[in-house]
Write a structure and sequence with these properties.
Elements (H helix, E strand, L loop, with lengths): L2 E3 H5 E2 L3 E2 L2 H11 L6 E3 L6 H5 L4 E5 L3 H18 L23 H21 L7 E5 L2 H14 L7
Helix pairs in contact: 4-5
């Protein structure tokens, strides 16, 4: 199944953001197939994806868990100059800024509660009643989910 990181679609070279209409158009094209996995949390394309999806997996970690994973990962990518998408790399100096548009950690802290409320509301919204929501609240739950998903995956070459 195709796997798409929505950040890689949204953030073009030089961290240029796609205009909303173009972002939605590209996501529509990517979600046009019979199966896909989209990684990301862009409310602007939620209707495009969720009307075509059957399952939404929501990682509902605590703030502490989120930061425990985000900070080392961001530091590692910054120090190693790891390319993310389209030639973009995180800059170590961005972590010294308080601007959420350049500091991923500040952005994540500021948006943590809003995203949590949004997903929890969507889970009980009748508009999305056809979706299966999988809410994972701990690393252990994520491990179990992934283990079960691998065991249920279809065998290669079987139609």
């Amino acid at each position: 199944m195709p796997f798409v990181e929505l950040d890689g679609v949204f953030h073009q070279a030089g961290w240029t953001r796609l205009p909303p209409e173009e972002f939605e158009r590209r996501v529509e094209l990517l979600a046009d197939g019979p199966g896909w996995v989209m990684d990301g949390n862009y409310s602007s394309v939620r209707p495009v994806l969720w009307t075509r999806a059957d399952t939404v997996v929501y990682l509902d970690a605590t703030m502490a868990t989120m930061l425990w994973r985000l900070i080392p990962r961001t530091l590692h990518r910054s120090l190693r100059h790891t390319e993310l998408w389209n030639g973009n790399r995180e800059k170590l100096g961005n972590l010294l800024k308080l601007d959420p548009e350049v500091n991923l950690i500040v952005w994540s802290v500021r948006n943590f509660d809003r995203h949590r409320r949004s997903f929890r509301a969507a889970m009980v919204d009748p508009q999305w009643s056809d979706l299966t929501f999988v809410r994972l609240c701990s690393p252990t739950q994520v491990e179990i989910f992934l283990k079960n998903a691998k065991e249920l995956a279809p065998c290669e070459g079987v139609v």
